[in-house]
Amino acid sequence: MKKIALLFSMLFVLALTSHLKAQDYKSAIGLRFGYPISISYKTFLTESNALELYAGYRGYSGIYSYFSVGALYEIHKPIGEVDGLSWYYGGGASVQFFTYDDGYFFNDDNGSFGVGLSGVIGLDYKFPSAPFNLSLDFMPTIRFGGWDSGYYSWGALAARYVLK
Questions:
Q1: What is the domain range of residue 6?
Q2: How buried is 120 (Cβ within 10 angstroms: 0-12 exposed, 13-18 middle, 19+ buried)?
Q3: What is the Cα–Cα distance from 76 to 163, expressed in whole angstroms?
Q4: What is the pLDDT of residues 83-126, one digit of tens each?
Q5: What is the pLDDT of residues 27-68, one digit of tens each?
Q6: Which entry of 48, 52, 63, 64 is 20 to 30 Å from 146 by CA?
Q7: First to last CA, the chain
Q8: Using an 8 Å Cβ cutoff, are 138 and 129 in contact?
Q9: How many structural domains compose the chain?
């Protein structure tokens, strides 16, 4: 945990001392390999502020499944030593629609609805000579409603194609 805190502290200091452009692309679409696996669309609203929209599905052996839709507002800060690399932080919200086998959860309801509030911190890289973007992030989330209310945290790797 101390190594992660040190890494993000170093990234924060580097971002404060950098005067480079925060991003090298306008919009990108691809997959977010996290929990759940999602389709991701990121677009920059300004030079350093982005909106990421995602929709994903997760199922487990016929016992339960859910569909999640969410949005994150992200503030990007460049890391001056590497072209195309930035770190970002932000927050957002999501909605989950659950279905599950009522015999497994001992109730008469086959579905539920939940809302999540999330924070996000991560790294974003745009390849200089190719139309691809990668990001790696950590997203702590608090869910309200549904059968799995509580605190969760996930990491994800997103691979996106940069749109012209």
A1: 2-163
A2: buried
A3: 18
A4: 899 999 999 999 988 887 656 555 555 667 889 999 999 999 99
A5: 999 999 988 899 999 999 999 999 999 999 987 776 778 899
A6: 52
A7: 39
A8: no
A9: 1
Which residue type is seen at 160? R
The residue type of 148 is D
| Domain CATH code at residue 106 | 2.40.160.20
Q: Please tell me the distance from the alpha carbon of residue 134 to that of residue 91, in angstroms, as a whole number.
A: 19
Tokens of 47: 């030079």
Q: How many residues does the chain have?
A: 164
- The β-bridge relationship of strands 49-60 and 27-33 is unpaired
107, two tokens: 């109730």
Beta bridge partners of 1: none
**DSSP states of the chain:** -HHHHHHHHHHHHHHHH--S-S-S-SEEEEEEESSSEEEEEEEESSSSEEEEEEEEEEEETTTEEEEEEEEEEEEEEE-TTSTTEEEEEEEEEEEEEEEE-HHHHTSS--EEEEEEEEEEEEEEEE-TTSSEEEEEEEEEEEEEESTT-EEEEEEEEEEEEEE-
